[in-house]
Amino acid sequence: KMTQQMRDLQLAQARKPPGPSSPNAAKRLYRNLSGKFRVNYTSFDEGSLVGRGEKEKLRKSYLFQSNAALFEAVELQDLDRVQEMLKHYSPEELDLNTPNSEGLLPLDIAIMTNNAPIARALLQAGAKESPHFVSLESRSLHLSTLVREAEQRVNELMAQVVNEAPNADCSDKEKQLKAWEWRFRLYKRMKAGFEHARVPDAPSSVHLSVASSSSLQVTFWEPLSVNSAVVTKYKVEWSCSPTFSPLLGEAVIDKLKDLHFTIQGLVSGTAYHIRVSAYNMKGWGPPQASTPPFAIPSNWREYDGRAPRRRGQAEALDHLLGQVKTVHQHCICHEPCKNQPQSRKHSVSKSLKHLFHPGSKFLKTLKRGLYLTAIFYKDDNILVTHEDQIPVVEIDDTYSCLLMQDFLWLTKVSCMWDEILWLRQCVTVSQSSCSCILQTRFKMLLAISQMQGLLGIQDLGQVFFEPIKDKQGNILIVTLKEVKTNQTFESVRWVPICKLQTSRKSVSSPEEPTALDTLLISLQDKLAYHQRSSHALSPGLYLGYLKLCSAVDQIRVLVPEQLPNILCHVKIRSNPNISREEWEWLQKMASVEEPVPTEPEADRPQNPLFQELQVAIKELMTLVNIPLQEAKDFRLYSQEVLDFGDQVSFLLLLPPSDDVCTAPGQNNPYTPRSGFLTLPLQIFELGEEG
């Protein structure tokens, strides 16, 4: 019989019946369930259910079936089925960490049969070992009980089969006998796996890095040994003493999807020693000390006590804008501005009906002048007017050429779409100077207000980095906005982009397309640029390459097409923090004007950051098509680390001072490969801020 402890467990888990009667039955069970796994019980017609009670019974039935199928898949060592169920169901839906009637969890079966692939898949999904195995003795006793009871049941059934005459009952007994023989072999294999296992070796490697002025990051790797049982958790310990006496703290990591841990709440300037040990069903293995053996929480700013560059800047700008508004509060434009927020209360779906109003002032064709168009897109569809036209409004019909400064001013206005009415009326007050620049910019604000009013949408999105020009004298400024909501709009035409491109009748020749035709031809490229310009970098420290080129009226910066809001870059490491010690080393390099480290030197101490920079510089030079020997004349910017939040930071690599910015007419000695573009510096700054 079962031990008393397992009898109590059986009662507590009475809702879990034993597994199928045979391995073939087990296969049939989860094979038949495979079709049901793809059906969500919430998709049934709720009208066909009597009430909540029946829906709850249905839900529990699905949970039981998926849980039983998972147990059988693990017992039969069917890795593909286990992975499929873990992919389609959450741990709660699979009841992953509730023992069955034998007091076992799926992970217990996997590790005691030494099936490492299934065990790792279960661990990454959040599986645990049974909490009832509080000691090696309790696990051994429980396995011995399962083996003994299975053997006893096999003997009983064998005697019944031998002594009874052939009949239907005898056939059932033979099936039960085969099932119990299979289960007997399973339990014996689990018992042998437990008895032959040994404690795990130490983790193969433990890397220690400084995460901030109060934290350290520990990254570790599995033990190299393949003969011991599967590791199910790790323990990180830290102390100020190399002997780890006294121990300052420890943490047990049982979520093994990512083998790293950040120790928080440490004292800046204090050295901490770290070690990590692994655990399996036989206990804890020996610890592995970290490399380096200790680390000191710090940040590069502690080198000279420098405050963050952006601290308080957003608040200061908001305060400055408030002061400007206060100065204008007594002018005639102030009263209409009070009503501005109310206009924003209209729902988008209601105001989009303006698109189909016969009196709308969207243009169909361009006649020599300056125009504004707004591109709203969702997936592969684009928003058009009732005449299947992209929304276009006129800015100025007498404007023959767009001055870059006016265009860059408009890109800054795009950060204040909600303040257009206030800006327009304040510019009206200022027109007493009769400035041509103010006249042009006032017309831009009028066109923006008109577009917002006709669309009923305040936020027109991001201004594309360059206007579209044609030989007929038209200039088209493009804004781009992605609609991510699933909201449906009444009477609004979302037209597939490909359909719009093929159905539009061009009024120009292929040799001299109009600005509108050029927009349609290049629409996918512009949408791709817009989407890529909002992508964020993954956390880490990066090496960026700063290369500028100047024209008469602007400075442009080299960026990658795949991420145009960031400088050309490569990743140095996943840890974004530069420690005080690393920054001191960089300062020493800069003070003696050493070349950037492109090749290892035998007599130089191998600083980890030095090695990381060598690899990153080689990769970056290859990326931008610069011979590695020329990088010896490049410099690392040593004034500061560029921090973008808490998760991304940059070191800058600069060409020689005479080549940082290429002047008009000057040959660029460093021509990057394809896949790059140059953006106006102000456009890049706006994208980087975003």
From TrEMBL:
Superkingdom of origin organism: Eukaryota
Annotated InterPro entries: ANKFN1, Ankyrin_rpt-contain_sf, FN3_dom, FN3_sf, Ig-like_fold
Location of the region described as Disordered in the Swiss-Prot/TrEMBL record: 1-25
GO CC annotation: spindle
Positions of the Fibronectin type-III domain: 202-299
PROSITE patterns, alphabetized: FN3
Any GO BP annotation: establishment of mitotic spindle orientation
A Pfam entry, by short name: fn3
Cross-referenced SUPFAM superfamilies: Ankyrin repeat (SSF48403), Fibronectin type III (SSF49265)
UniProt protein name: ANKF1 protein
Species name: Zosterops hypoxanthus
